[in-house]
Amino acid sequence: MTPRTLLLPLVALIVAAALLAVQLAAGGADFVPTRAADPCAARPLPPVTDDIEPLAQDVVLLGVQRTACALGVTRERLVLALPSARDRAELARATGRTEAGLATALRSGLDQAVGRLDRAGRLPRASALLDSYAGELGLPGLAEAAVKRIPDGVVDGLLPTGAVLRRALAQLDVTALLRDLEDPDALEARLTEAIKAAALAEAKERLIEKIPGPIRGFLGL
Amino acid sequence: MIAVLSLAVGIVLADSAIVTLALPEILRQLDAEVSEVAWVLTAYNLVLALAAVPAARLCIKPGHAPVAGAAGLVVFAGASAGCAAATSLEVLIVARVVQALGGALVIMACLELLVLASGDERRGAARWAVAGVAGAAVGPVAGGLLTQAISWQSIFIFQVPLVLLAVPVAIRLRGRSRAAGATVADSVRAADRPDAAANLALALLSAALTAALFLLVLLLVEGWRRSPALAAITVTVIPVAAIAAGVVARAARAGTRSEAIAGAILIGGGLVALGFLPDANPAWTLAPQALVGLGLGLTVDSLTAVALRDRFPRALHGGWTIAARHVGVVAGLAILTPIFTADLRDAQAPAQEAIAALVLDAPLPASAKLDLADGLGRELESEGGRVPDLAPAFSAVRLDAADRPRAQALAVALDDQLERAATRAFRDAFLVAGALALLAVLPASMLRETRPEAGA
Question: How far is CA B421 from each of CA B272, B285, B339, rounded to the nearest angstrom?
Answer without folding.
Answer: 18, 17, 15
